[in-house]
Structures are given as structure tokens and as C-alpha cells.
């Protein structure tokens, strides 16, 4: 009996040690701890929201001087943009603006003074709304039980927060910020709930058109197309019916006509060569008071503006066709999808007459999805996007006033940013082309593989 106790103790010790090692290994596989990630989420959003108050060029300007008046007029019995008058945005974009207006009325007693009612309280309310929506998307991204999937998702979540900080206030204080978590959640549900994903993309497109590119990519590459089309049709029908009942049928597609009538914005990728001509007086920068943007004027400007939209259509069709061809040749939809999404979004940015800095946030959802579905190939696109974001914040708002004065250094920074957009597009298309093609006998494994993601 005296020898039994040492033997039992000896056996128990390795058991406890093995359990500890397994736990430690599981934590390492899981990646960054959840508490650290959520702390990073809070810090990133607080930081970006706070620097918006101190940076030059008033990066919160659209929020307080454009969104708030639109919402106030709609709630106060005045004009309802998108309904009683034509509007530059799809009609659902007014919904988050109205929600922020309601929140601002609840919190404005914290900001005494008449000035605060229409500015500070609305900015804070908008920050809260964006943060809450991002938190929902962040929570969806971080869910997952398997250790490897958990590690990948945590890495993608950390990438999201780094991107937010690098892009700066423009990532929060524009309507585009509302669509990012919708697009991320939709991407996460594409394989398991394609109809729900399609609905989220469609809702996002009725706020800002770009999520429609994600829908196009999913429709071209994934099964369940009928469900996705029906889901998108139902959402669109509900939106259109609501607008008709509100008396807005005449302005239903007003945002398309507003876009077609816009000039060439100075930050547009296609404007880059013409922007340099301001140095020798060939072109000039002027402010459009109707559209509220700075645009180029001079020889060649109208021609470039006229060519960009057809070029965008051709580019979108070409990329979608290339991805579909690779799919039918036997390439994995799992690997094609995120690269196709990023390529399509990059084309929407590169071939756009409007080059607003907030457009860069469109690339975030495809990048996050790329991390999850095809992690080994995402490094170069991720680096390029992060550099693009840093350059974007340098241009706007840091040196934006100097850009409006057509100084050479900010034009050079903007040119570098625009080159990055083109490079991202090229890298994404290259990833589509280089996606390996599997033999026909293994194609039957495609659905089980993708549905596990």
C-alpha cells in the first residue's frame, strides 16, 4: 500500500501537465484573446471618433452639415430627400440619418447651448450608431467554435480594427460606414444562409450602391442563385412599395440621375493626370455647390468623366465573366469569391467620377472575407489596402486644405493612393486568374467544403 500512493501521484501529475499543455496549445491556436480584441474594438472606435473633433478639414462635416439637416427637415415636416425631391443617395440611406437624429434628441441635454443641438449631439449620436452596428458585425465575425476557425476570425477582426484606425474619421462619419457591418455579416452568411446574405447586400445597396457588387460576385459564383434573386427582389419590392406609398415614385431612381450628372471630382482615380495639369494652369479646381464637392474643370475633363462610367460597366462585366469562367473550369468558389468581390469593388472605385475618400472603406468587407476563405493569399492585398488607407487619411483630412490649393505634395500623396487602388484591382484580378483549377472528379467536394466556411 505504501507504494501505491507514489504511483498514483506520479500518474496524476502527467495528466494535469498534459491538460495544461493542451489548454495552452488551444489558446495559441485561437489567436488573440477575445477580451483583447474587444478592448481593441473600443479603443479604435473611441480614438477615431475623438480625432474627428481635432483634425483639419472638418472630417465630420457631412455628418453635421448635410445628414443632420436632411434628417431634421424630414422629421420636421419639410422636404424628404429621396421622396419629395431627388437625392444623391438611394432612399434607405435616410433611415440611419433619422435614427441618429432621434438619438441626438435624447442626448443633446448633455451638450448645453443652441449650437450643440444641431452639431455636437448629432455627431455623438452618429458615432454611437456606427459603433453599435460595427459591434454587431464584430460579434458575428468572432463567433466560431473550432480553434483554427477562431484564430482566423480573430485575425480578421484585428485587421478590421487596424484598418479603421489607419483610415481615420472618414471611416465612421460617412453613410458608407453603415454598410460595412451589413456587408461583413452578409459575407459570413453567404454559404449557410444565402437568402439572408442576399437580403443584407440588397439593403446595403439601397443605402449605398457598392454592396451590389458583392451580390453580383455571389450570384456569379455560388449555388442558391434562385434564393438569392428572390430574396433581393423581395427587399427591393418592399422598399419600392414603401416609397410609392409615401408619394416618392417620381424620385425612385433619382440617385442614378444625380450620379450621371456629376462632374469629375478631384480625388477620382481617373482625375489624377488632369489634377497634375493644375500645376501649369491647364486645369483648375472648382466647387460645385449643388453636389457639394470639389471638381476639376478644363480641357479633357468632360471627356474623362464621360468615359469612366462605361469603363466601369465593362470592367465589372469582364471580372464577373472571368470569375465565372474559372469556376466552370473547376476552380474553387471558396477561393474565387473574395478576390472577385475585391476586384469588383476596386473597379467601382477606380472607374468612378466621384473619388470621395470614404469609398476606400468598401474594400474592407471583401478583405475580411478573403481572410476567412483564402487566408494564405490575402497577405499582399491586405498590405496594399492598409497602405491605401494610411495614404487616404494623409490626403483627407490631414493635407486636404493644401490639396484644394493644388499644391504638389498633396497631389503626389493622392496620386500614390490612387495608384494603390489600381494595384489592388490588379492583384485581385491576378488572384482570380491564378486560382488553381481542380479535376472534374473532385468537383463534387465543392459544396461540402464551402458550406463549412
Summarize the structure.
The chain is mostly helical and 453 residues long. The protein contains 20 helices and two strands. A hairpin with a 4-residue loop joins strand 1 and strand 2.
Characterization of the model:
The longest helix is centred in the last third of the chain and has 29 residues, at about 300-330. The termini are far apart. With about 450 residues, this protein is mostly helical. It has a two-stranded antiparallel ribbon. The chain has 20 helices and two strands. α9 (about 195-205) packs parallel to α11 (about 225-245). About 45% of the residues are buried.
Biggest sheet character: 2 strands, antiparallel
Number of helices: 20
**Based on CA inertia axes, which overall geometry fits?**
globular
- Percent of residues in helices comes to 55-70%
Percent in strands: under 5%
On the 0-100 scale, what is the average pLDDT? 89
How many β-strands, per DSSP? Answer: 2
Alpha-beta content class: mainly alpha
Order of helices and strands: HHHHHHHHHHHHHEEHHHHHHH
Distance between the termini: 55 Å
Ranges where pLDDT stays below 50 over 5 or more residues in a row are 1-16, 441-453
Query: What is the gyration radius calculated from CA atoms?
Result: 24 Å
Main-sheet strand order equals 1-2
Write the layout of secondary structure elements.
Blueprint: H1 4-30, H2 34-51, H3 61-75, H4 94-107, H5 114-117, H6 120-142, H7 147-167, H8 176-188, H9 194-205, H10 211-221, H11 225-245, H12 254-260, H13 272-276, E1 284-288, E2 293-297, H14 301-329, H15 333-350, H16 364-373, H17 379-398, H18 400-404, H19 408-433, H20 446-451
Antiparallel strand pairs: 1-2
Amino acid at each position: 500500500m505504501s507504494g501505491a500512493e507514489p504511483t498514483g501521484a506520479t500518474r496524476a501529475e502527467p495528466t494535469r501537465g498534459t491538460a495544461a499543455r493542451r489548454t495552452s496549445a488551444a489558446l495559441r491556436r485561437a489567436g488573440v484573446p477575445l477580451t483583447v480584441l474587444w478592448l481593441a474594438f473600443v479603443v479604435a472606435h473611441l480614438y477615431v471618433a475623438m480625432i474627428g473633433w481635432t483634425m483639419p478639414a472638418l472630417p465630420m462635416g457631412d455628418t453635421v452639415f448635410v445628414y443632420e439637416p436632411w434628417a431634421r427637415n424630414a422629421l420636421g415636416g419639410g422636404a424628404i430627400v429621396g421622396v419629395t425631391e431627388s437625392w444623391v443617395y438611394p432612399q434607405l440611406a435616410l433611415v440611419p440619418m433619422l435614427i441618429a437624429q432621434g438619438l441626438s434628441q435624447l442626448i443633446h441635454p448633455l451638450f448645453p447651448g443652441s449650437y450643440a443641438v444641431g452639431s455636437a449631439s448629432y455627431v455623438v449620436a452618429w458615432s454611437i450608431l456606427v459603433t453599435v452596428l460595427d459591434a454587431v458585425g464584430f460579434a458575428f465575425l468572432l463567433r466560431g467554435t473550432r480553434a483554427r476557425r477562431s484564430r482566423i476570425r480573430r485575425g480578421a477582426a484585428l485587421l478590421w480594427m487596424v484598418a479603421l484606425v489607419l483610415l481615420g474619421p472618414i471611416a465612421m462619419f460617412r453613410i458608407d460606414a453603415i454598410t460595412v457591418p451589413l456587408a461583413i455579416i452578409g459575407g459570413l452568411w453567404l454559404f449557410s444562409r444565402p437568402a439572408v446574405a442576399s437580403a443584407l447586400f440588397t439593403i446595403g445597396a439601397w443605402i449605398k450602391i457598392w454592396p451590389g457588387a458583392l451580390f453580383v460576385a455571389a450570384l456569379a459564383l455560388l449555388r442558391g442563385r434562385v434564393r438569392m434573386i428572390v430574396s433581393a427582389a423581395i427587399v427591393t419590392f418592399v422598399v419600392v412599395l414603401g416609397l410609392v406609398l409615401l408619394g416618392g415614385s417620381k424620385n425612385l431612381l433619382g440617385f442614378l440621375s444625380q450620379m450621371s450628372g456629376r462632374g469629375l471630382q478631384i480625388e477620382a482615380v481617373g482625375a489624377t493626370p488632369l489634377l497634375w495639369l493644375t500645376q501649369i494652369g491647364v486645369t483648375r479646381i472648382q466647387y460645385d455647390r449643388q453636389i457639394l464637392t470639389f471638381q476639376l474643370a478644363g480641357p479633357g475633363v468632360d471627356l474623362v468623366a464621360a468615359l469612366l462610367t462605361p469603363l466601369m460597366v465593362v470592367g465589372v462585366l469582364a471580372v464577373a465573366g472571368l470569375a465565372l469562367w474559372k469556376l466552370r473550369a473547376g476552380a474553387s468558389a471558396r477561393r474565387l469569391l473574395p478576390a472577385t468581390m475585391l476586384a469588383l469593388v476596386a473597379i467601382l472605385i477606380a472607374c468612378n467620377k466621384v473619388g470621395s475618400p470614404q469609398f476606400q472603406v468598401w474594400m474592407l468587407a471583401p478583405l475580411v472575407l478573403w481572410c476567412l476563405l483564402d487566408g494564405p493569399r490575402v497577405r499582399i492585398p491586405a498590405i496594399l489596402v492598409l497602405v491605401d488607407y494610411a495614404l487616404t487619411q494623409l490626403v483627407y483630412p490631414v493635407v486636404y486644405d493644401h490639396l484644394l490649393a493644388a499644391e504638389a505634395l498633396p497631389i503626389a500623396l493622392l496620386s500614390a493612393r490612387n495608384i494603390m487602388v489600381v494595384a489592388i484591382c490588379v492583384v485581385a484580378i491576378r488572384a482570380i486568374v491564378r486560382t488553381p483549377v481542380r479535376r472534374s472528379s473532385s468537383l463534387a467536394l465543392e459544396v461540402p467544403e464551402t458550406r463549412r466556411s
